[in-house]
Specification:
Oligomer: heterodimer
Mean pLDDT of chain A: 92
Distance between the termini of chain A: 13 Å
Number of helices of chain B: 16
Low-confidence stretches of chain B: none
Strand order of the largest sheet of chain B: 3-23-22-19-18
Strand content of chain A: under 5%
Number of strands of chain B: 23
Structural class of chain A: mainly alpha
Distance between the termini of chain B: 18 Å
Largest interface: A-B, 21 and 22 residues
Largest sheet of chain A: none
Mean pLDDT of chain B: 92
Order of helices and strands of chain A: HHHHHHHHHHHHHHH
Helix content of chain B: 25-40%
Chain lengths: 313, 465
């Protein structure tokens, strides 16, 4: 496989994952804005911040109102992280690596792009938002379904999955990075209703409100949430889960290529922080510090993978 | 579809019976389904310089163009003869230049021609093949009269449409394929791979590695490049995937560098090698020409082929065929006035409103004048351009191209068509796919079939004899 193709597969799936995560963040923000009126603008601000485009947003808008944020995050082409921008890039990468994809995966991706382009041709009004988010969710589910149902489990699949899980880990960590303070025991509003809102947002941002309630029998605690998002292997968006998958895929590549790439060792080191530690140790170390260092490690791993497999030469 | 006196032609008899019973609304629905299929498959082409809607579909018409086995055999013989002559001509032009010495072609036509590539002088490509893939544009003016309109020996495109149009028809109207004995074209990618592999360079050891070089996803024919790579099981590479390593051109893979034996390049000569041609090109591979000359890689098609399909050379094609094959040309050339010759120029200027005038190096239907369809003013403007640089133009009579029906809102209506069969040349044989790309001018009365000018395509059926 060409190094460029490996890179194209990685980024195609990284962008697809990103589009879903942004839709999920908007969904969570919207839910909070509807049910907790006082917190609405703050919540939209933190959604924009979590998407990593706060600076860009403030260049164009002076307040965080629902309509501006929604349109900026979903359909603004000047925002490189808007859903429409990342889907466009995912599809460009798909075109580039088309010969490595099954017909089903290509068509699902292309249809996703065509559908979203037409759905977002005009500004999205607040009342249309649930429908639009639903379309985004369904479109990405189709690509994922096609990937799982039709692709060979070989190096092509491994690079695709690496893109997915590096992005997902990054996204979960960012959500924690922006909201870490509400999970700290020292926070002075512990137990207040504001707390509950914030905890709920975190869980909704990773589509885990229901599964958390189910696992913890409705008892929401900051430590429980942190444990769930960082250490819990059952939770498909937790850092531990993502790194178990990254580790698997890198292991498979090493075996397939008969070459133990340096990125594998790095991934193992990062992974060991979830498998050999408890959440108490993380809080002792400092939740914020832990997340910050994870984000930079996650990026370092990407750099190492692209070097080892020659994404750019 | 109809011959003289409006008699239905033999090859269409079966089809006519079928379509007479068809409901036009069902056909229109099928037509929309076909469009949706093309969109979701991504069979699009890019239009340069348009930001929005940059990807467009080439309209596909569901009425096939049908050719009898007998007609096809005659075309085939003519095409093979022509392609052989072009190969021999290229070899001669870049070696001993006998045809110039014999005075059959004026020296300045070669020497002053910008598509002549001096870097090819004395180079013998592997297997002696220059024109690995050829598209010959043919028009029909009468039941028994075919003309070659143009040869394409550089990077002819359109073969993916031949294949996808057929695929679409098979899905839409399977019943037609059991009622008609239609020759199969789907083996093209296999034949292409075989044919390219047969031209492996001396440096190749083992099974030849074939790759397609594309300018990238923004190129107008990108769909075709990736389609062919996919179908052949070859890598689709870009210039920056390639590097000169230990005297071979190698592609950068996830496991290091792999040498390429045959590069089917869909990048023009000018951009192929910044060290030999345009130094600013980022699409090509620095040093590939040196490796090519020393037998380290095969380039398909060979650089410098433009000299054989140049429109100024075109008018000499009957002489070229006779010179190298000793036979008279089976397929006729359209009578052509070379505006570089004083006498022809004055004739052309006097008769502009009846002629088609083309730029010698033009393509895609750009920069041409279709006299009968042009306004007086357009003709005056064109005459000025022509007088300024007469050698840049050739003129031909306006041919009454044959028509095939297309499905319109009002039902079936005749439209003008041309035909591009695809030819594969290897050292031991010449393969012609029984079919090709039929392009159709969708505007009523129009003679311009180019997709960049609003033309569409049709499936092309060659019936068993």
């Amino acid at each position: 496989m060409l190094g460029r193709t490996a890179g194209g597969l990685f980024w195609m799936f990284r962008y697809l994952e990103r589009s879903e995560n942004i839709a999920r963040l908007v969904d969570a923000g919207f839910r909070i804005a509807l049910t907790r009126f006082d917190a609405a603008d703050d919540e939209w601000a933190s959604v924009v911040e979590t998407s990593g485009v706060k600076g860009l947003y403030l260049e164009q808008h002076d307040q965080f109102d629902a309509t501006s944020v929604i349109n900026f995050l979903l359909r603004d082409k000047s925002n490189p992280s808007s859903v429409i921008s990342v889907v466009d890039m995912a599809r460009n990468n798909a075109r580039m690596v088309r010969a490595s994809l099954t017909r089903e995966v290509w068509e699902a991706t292309n249809n996703c792009w065509m559908t979203l382009k037409s759905v977002m041709a005009r500004p999205v009004k607040e009342r249309e938002l649930p429908e639009v988010l639903d379309v985004i969710r369904k479109q990405s589910a189709q690509v994922r379904g096609a990937l799982h149902g039709t692709m060979l489990r070989n190096d092509i699949f491994n690079f695709a999955r690496l893109g997915t899980f590096l992005e997902r880990a990054d996204s979960t960590a960012r959500i924690l990075d922006v909201k870490y303070y509400v999970l700290l025991p020292s926070a002075n509003y512990v137990g207040s209703s504001l707390d509950n809102v914030q905890w709920e947002t975190i869980l909704r941002s990773v589509s885990a409100m229901r599964s958390y309630r189910w696992l913890y029998k409705g008892e929401i605690s900051p430590k429980g949430i942190a444990d769930f998002l960082i250490m819990d292997h059952r939770m498909p968006r937790s850092l531990a889960f993502c790194y178990a998958k990254i580790d698997d895929n890198l292991r498979f590549l090493s075996k397939d290529y008969d070459f133990d790439a340096p990125c594998r060792e790095l991934a193992e080191t990062i992974y060991s922080r979830f498998s050999n530690q408890s959440i108490d140790a993380v809080f002792e170390f400092g939740l914020h510090e832990f997340i910050e260092s994870f984000l930079s490690d996650n990026d370092a791993l990407y750099q190492q993978i692209q070097r080892d497999y020659g994404f750019y030469g | 579809m109809f011959g003289r006196d409006d008699i239905l032609r033999q090859p269409y008899k079966n089809y006519q019976k079928w379509i007479a019973d068809e409901d036009i609304r069902r056909l229109r629905k099928k037509s929309l389904e076909a469009e949706a299929y093309f969109r979701s498959t991504g069979i699009t082409f890019n239009v340069y310089g348009q930001e929005e809607e940059a990807e467009r579909l080439i309209p596909f018409d569901i009425v096939p163009r049908i050719i009898s086995g007998h007609e096809w055999n005659r075309l085939t013989r003519g095409i093979i003869q022509r392609v052989k002559a072009m190969n021999a001509f290229l070899h001669d032009i870049y070696h001993r230049q006998e045809i110039l010495k014999a005075g059959r072609i004026p020296l300045e036509l070669i020497a002053e021609n910008e598509v002549f590539v001096p870097q090819m002088i004395g180079v013998s490509p592997p297997g002696g093949v220059y024109t690995h893939i050829v598209g010959v544009d043919i028009v029909r003016t009468d039941e028994n009269q075919f003309y070659v309109l143009e040869d394409n020996t550089r990077t002819p495109s359109g073969v993916s449409y031949m294949l996808e149009n057929r695929e679409t028809m098979l899905q839409m109207f399977p019943e037609l394929f059991s009622n008609n004995r239609i020759q199969n074209v789907s083996d093209y990618p296999k034949s292409l791979h075989r044919s390219l592999s047969a031209c492996a360079p001396p440096a190749c050891n083992g099974k030849p590695v074939v790759a397609i070089l594309t300018p990238g996803i923004h190129n107008s024919a990108y769909f075709e490049h990736s389609f062919l790579a996919d179908q052949m099981g070859a890598e689709l590479v870009e210039g920056n995937d390639l590097k000169l390593v230990d005297g071979r051109i190698c592609m950068r893979t996830t496991q290091g560098f792999t040498p390429i034996d045959v590069l089917y390049r869909r990048v023009d000569d000018e951009y192929l090698d910044p060290l030999s041609f345009n130094p600013r090109s980022l699409l090509g591979v620095p040093g590939v020409m040196d490796i090519y000359r020393s037998g380290g890689i095969t380039l398909a098609n060979a650089p410098g082929n433009g000299i054989s399909d140049d429109k100024a050379i075109y008018s000499y094609m009957p002489d070229i065929i006779e010179f190298y094959t000793g036979e008279k040309a089976i397929l006729e050339n359209v009578p052509t006035w070379r505006c570089s010759e004083q006498e022809s120029l004055s004739y052309v200027l006097d008769n502009l409103s009846d002629l088609v005038v083309k730029e010698v190096h033009g393509s895609g239907g750009y920069g041409m004048l279709v006299g009968p369809a042009a306004s007086k003013r357009e003709i005056r403007t064109f005459a000025t351009k022509l007088k300024q640089k007469p050698a840049n133009y050739i003129a031909q009579p306006t041919l009454s191209l044959s028509t095939v029906p297309v499905l319109t809102r009002q039902g079936l209506a005749p439209r003008h068509v041309d035909l591009r069969p695809f030819v594969l040349v290897s050292p031991d044989k010449i393969d012609i796919m029984p079919g090709g790309l039929t392009r159709v001018a969708l505007k009523e009365g129009s003679l311009v079939v180019n997709s960049s000018q609003g033309g569409g395509t049709k499936d092309t059926w060659v019936l068993e004899e």
